[in-house]
Amino acid sequence: MSASRSANLALVLVVLGWLLAYYGVMSQFGDPAPSVARSVIESQRHVSLAVWLIGLMCLVGSLWLSGRSFAAARRRSLLALASVVVPIVFLLAQLY
User: Fold this and answer.
1) In this predicted model, what pLDDT tens digit does every residue of 1-51 receive, in sequence order?
2) Where are the transmembrane segments (predicted)?
3) Residue 55 CB-density burial (10 A; 0-12 exposed, 13-18 middle, 19+ buried)
4) Distance CA 79, CA 58 (A)
5) Among 77, 62, 70, 69, which residue's Cα sits nearest to residue 3?
């Protein structure tokens, strides 16, 4: 795969990764209705965890592709890196 294609894929994976990670976390907020069976709640929890992990893997893959394509596509590579790291730093700063 060419470096240009790797940089483009890194940018796509950043967007996809953040969307999936956001859905995986936000789908766990709130209380289920009392009439919902425990098995359904557990099933939804497993789906949310799987989506969250896939989102994290997309972000890690984006970082790897960004590093792999840095020599040939510096701007896109740095944009992908910043798109992963800056929100994480912002979120951690909000916790402290």
Assistant:
1) 788 899 999 999 999 999 999 999 999 998 888 899 999 999 999 999 999
2) 49-66, 78-95
3) buried
4) 15
5) 69
